[in-house]
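Data deposition worksheet. Section B asks for the primary sequence of the deposited chain exactly as it was used as input, without tags or linkers unless they were present during the calculation. Section C holds the resulting structure in token form. Section D is free text for depositor observations; keep each observation to a single sentence. Incomplete worksheets are returned to the depositor.
Section A, Depositor: J.P.
Section B:
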Amino acid sequence: MRIALAVDGNYVSQHFGHCEGFELVDIQDNEVKNRVFVPNPGHRPGFLPKFLSEKGVNTIIAGGMGETAQALFNENGIDVLVGISGSIEDVIKEYIDGKLVSSNEVCERHEHHGECGH
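Section C:
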């Protein structure tokens, strides 16, 4: 299982498309087996879902994400968890513990991307 967290610094980004990059985390038997940071290659419509799918990602975790992006992730076989905030370490632990719950919130306006996920 490989999850990707959209991150800014050590925290989950509140808008995946504008994040610094993605923390790719391999989880096996409820343990982190590997972690790698991948810089955001750029926000272009439809690109990131395919990019992360090609990296073997099964789940994307972010604060906020638009409806089209969520649909494209799902079309690429990637589950979407949005409305998530906190440090990378805490979110990974919550995910492994089965306590991370998506708000299923849709970010609709990019001019307010700082508010996405809240």
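Section D:
The helical segments are 47-54, 67-75, 88-96.
Confidence is low (pLDDT under 50) at residues 110-118.
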